Amino acid sequence: MESLQELRAEIDQLDRELLQLIEKRLSLVKKVGELKHKKGLPIYVPDREADMLLARRKEAENIGVSAELIEDVLRRLMRESYASENQYGFKTVNPAIKKIVIVGGKGKLGGLFASYLSASGYPVSILDKADWLNAGKILAGANVVIVSVPICDTQEVIESLRPYLTENMLLTDLTSVKCLPLKKMLEVHSGAVVGLHPMFGPDIESMAKQIVVRCDGRYLERYQWFLDQIQIWGAKIYCVDAIEHDQNMTYVQALRHFSTFASGLHLSKQPVQLSKLLALSSPIYRLELAMIGRLFAQDGGLYADIIMDKPENLTVIKSMQQSYEESLKFIENGDKQGFIDCFNQVKQWFGNYSQQFLKESHQLLKQANDYRRS
After folding, report:
1. Which residues contact 127 (CB under 8 A, 6 or more apart)?
2. Where are the beta strands (DSSP E) in 233-286?
3. In what residue span(s) does the Chorismate mutase domain sit (predicted)?
4. Antiparallel, parallel or unpaired: β 100-103 and 144-147
5. Model confidence at 374: pLDDT above 60
6. Average pLDDT, stretch 328-345?
């Protein structure tokens, strides 16, 4: 026992030395953030990250340390670094912009963009529900108007902006559907228009590696600076046609959210206790429960809007019901071979992505298991 205590004491000392090294690394990151702010460089540089990870993996292997361990540690440190770099602000890409108005800026997503724009040196004003009597005053002199309101209110709000828009303004929105909002913006505004869809929630620590979808409207050259500004924050811009965007969102958002909702609803009606399920869960099932629980920790109105925003969503959701019924028949009929044949057909459809997803999920499972306490 004395030997064990001595070894533990040495480990504790090494841990304290690691803390000092981490503090030193974060201090260097602070200087990097300050330089990036001055030079207008993006927070996230994919090539630099990839090269650094590859070099450290090779060095780890050369001294007999797990390359996976080193990559895990470094990725966690880099995530912290990206988040900490936000506090130093960002270069102002377009100093000519004197006023940006966010309609719905008191909401979570609107507030997130307000904070990033302010950190980039732009004067930001908020036009919220209670402010419409003063809309003319708030919108006067604005160079950019960003609409960030619930899906069900978006078109009405855009229409309400019509009397206040001038040709030199940029009009954009942050809605998760794009066809109808983009069409309405082009209808009410003769100036620059672009539809944006941030593919993340307002609880992110950093824009690094996040995706912002862009659906072009009119006068790209007038809003290219705004896209450049978002990229400096660390996000990637993905350009897609509005129709194609909405078609894909039926599967990426509506179908997925409905499946999660239905799973949670079904579980809530079963004679089981969630605490017992967690205690008996494998890491993968615990992660699946976490994803279901995550949905119900948020706003039901938001998910209702996403799931019900267009008729196509209902059609696809009904097709999933048919797939459930088809799958259930294998069980009802005891058709094991039929199940396996169907399984292999789906496996073939996924192709090489199956192995990619297996690798990605393996990393998530390790992290989920690390935080398990019961």
Report:
1. 101, 102, 103, 104, 105, 135, 138, 139
2. 236-239
3. 1-89
4. parallel
5. no
6. 96
